[in-house]
């Protein structure tokens, strides 16, 4: 078997599939881990050498539904009462 055209015909199995957490096509079927977010690990996969990747998924890129509510309550003064 050579490395060229003949070898390309052998490729008919899926290695990565959809991830349940991040929704990307990065979940490794055999390893059972996501190459993008690290699922099923509890902490999200992130590295400081991947600055652009951190920028894409950091706080503020989504809806911030909970954070918006916290900010609203803080401004109203309800979080300051002990």
TrEMBL record:
User: What Gene3D superfamilies does its record include?
Assistant: 2.20.25.30
GO MF, one example:
structural constituent of ribosome
Instruction: Give Gene Ontology CC terms.
Output: cytosolic large ribosomal subunit
Q: Name one Pfam family in it.
A: Ribosomal_L37e
InterPro entries from the xrefs? Answer: Ribosomal_eL37, Ribosomal_eL37/eL43, Ribosomal_eL37_CS, Ribosomal_zn-bd
Swiss-Prot/TrEMBL GO biological process terms: translation
- The entry's keywords: Metal-binding, Ribonucleoprotein, Ribosomal protein, RNA-binding, rRNA-binding, Zinc, Zinc-finger
Family, as annotated? Belongs to the eukaryotic ribosomal protein eL37 family.
What the protein does? Component of the large ribosomal subunit. The ribosome is a large ribonucleoprotein complex responsible for the synthesis of proteins in the cell.
The protein's name in its UniProt record: Ribosomal protein L37
Source organism (scientific name): Carpediemonas membranifera
